[in-house]
Amino acid sequence: MPVLVITGTGTEVGKTVTTAAVAAAALAAGRSVAVLKAAQTGVRADERGDADEVARLAGPVTAAELARYPDPLAPGTAARRAGMAPVHPHEVAEAAAKLATEHDLVLVEGAGGLLVRFDAAGGTLADAARLLNAPVLVVASAGLGTLNTTELTARELGARGLELAGVVIGSWPGAPDLASRCNVADLQEVAGAPLLGALPAGAGALPPTDFRAAAPAWLAPRLEGTWDAEAFRIREAP
């Protein structure tokens, strides 16, 4: 798995922190890691972007982004409003492939959900994943509504012939409600793929040293972690 594409079921689901956790676990396992942010939006030129945040939390990764747009919008819309060139899927794929020649693992983080548009032609992260022939990790929220968005994302991946590596819950609450607890089992069913982790709410606010030490415990062995999905399901079962 030299390239792993990471998408969310929407915005604010914990995608960047999950990317950092995957990077931290891989680094702890002795792998070299690069993180590629396909398109950064809503950040000024002098501000830290998502790739920078991953590096801050995870440690010594190669952090790169292809484009940055000031408005907090879909990349294609943000590029048009700024009068800047958009990012195209083939550019994302080419950059990731180059990084893969120099690193053991390349994490390609999208913007928002799988079908958020990069350009006027309707290019998306899914198109970049297809060009890379790379598996896709889906980051989902824990609570009510997540089953619908997760299943829609999984169906779209399947329709495009893309591999869904699994699902990670991007922010698991300290006091989960009934819907969240039921979703632990249901997410795997609607996705047709394994649950590969659950990050505690507020993980991104941890000091980097604590984040790096804890990250493997949040992720399943496929992501270089020690997290046990069945034990988690039994513990959180309603």
From TrEMBL:
<feature type="binding site">
    <location>
        <position position="16"/>
    </location>
    <ligand>
        <name>Mg(2+)</name>
    </ligand>
</feature>
<keyword id="KW-0479">Metal-binding</keyword>
<comment type="subunit">
    <text>Homodimer.</text>
</comment>
<dbReference type="GO" id="GO:0000287">
    <property type="term" value="F:magnesium ion binding"/>
</dbReference>
<feature type="binding site">
    <location>
        <position position="41"/>
    </location>
    <ligand>
        <name>substrate</name>
    </ligand>
</feature>
<feature type="binding site">
    <location>
        <position position="109"/>
    </location>
    <ligand>
        <name>Mg(2+)</name>
    </ligand>
</feature>
<feature type="binding site">
    <location>
        <begin position="109"/>
        <end position="112"/>
    </location>
    <ligand>
        <name>ATP</name>
    </ligand>
</feature>
<dbReference type="GO" id="GO:0005829">
    <property type="term" value="C:cytosol"/>
</dbReference>
<keyword id="KW-0460">Magnesium</keyword>
<feature type="binding site">
    <location>
        <begin position="170"/>
        <end position="171"/>
    </location>
    <ligand>
        <name>ATP</name>
    </ligand>
</feature>
<feature type="binding site">
    <location>
        <position position="50"/>
    </location>
    <ligand>
        <name>Mg(2+)</name>
    </ligand>
</feature>
<dbReference type="InterPro" id="IPR004472">
    <property type="entry name" value="DTB_synth_BioD"/>
</dbReference>
<comment type="pathway">
    <text>Cofactor biosynthesis; biotin biosynthesis; biotin from 7,8-diaminononanoate: step 1/2.</text>
</comment>
<keyword id="KW-0436">Ligase</keyword>
<keyword id="KW-0067">ATP-binding</keyword>
<dbReference type="InterPro" id="IPR027417">
    <property type="entry name" value="P-loop_NTPase"/>
</dbReference>
<feature type="binding site">
    <location>
        <begin position="12"/>
        <end position="17"/>
    </location>
    <ligand>
        <name>ATP</name>
    </ligand>
</feature>
<protein>
    <recommendedName>
        <fullName>ATP-dependent dethiobiotin synthetase BioD</fullName>
        <ecNumber>6.3.3.3</ecNumber>
    </recommendedName>
</protein>
<dbReference type="GO" id="GO:0005524">
    <property type="term" value="F:ATP binding"/>
</dbReference>
<feature type="binding site">
    <location>
        <position position="50"/>
    </location>
    <ligand>
        <name>ATP</name>
    </ligand>
</feature>
<keyword id="KW-0093">Biotin biosynthesis</keyword>
<comment type="similarity">
    <text>Belongs to the dethiobiotin synthetase family.</text>
</comment>
<comment type="function">
    <text>Catalyzes a mechanistically unusual reaction, the ATP-dependent insertion of CO2 between the N7 and N8 nitrogen atoms of 7,8-diaminopelargonic acid (DAPA, also called 7,8-diammoniononanoate) to form a ureido ring.</text>
</comment>
<dbReference type="Pfam" id="PF13500">
    <property type="entry name" value="AAA_26"/>
</dbReference>
<keyword id="KW-0963">Cytoplasm</keyword>
<dbReference type="GO" id="GO:0004141">
    <property type="term" value="F:dethiobiotin synthase activity"/>
</dbReference>
<feature type="active site">
    <location>
        <position position="37"/>
    </location>
</feature>
<keyword id="KW-0547">Nucleotide-binding</keyword>
<dbReference type="GO" id="GO:0009102">
    <property type="term" value="P:biotin biosynthetic process"/>
</dbReference>
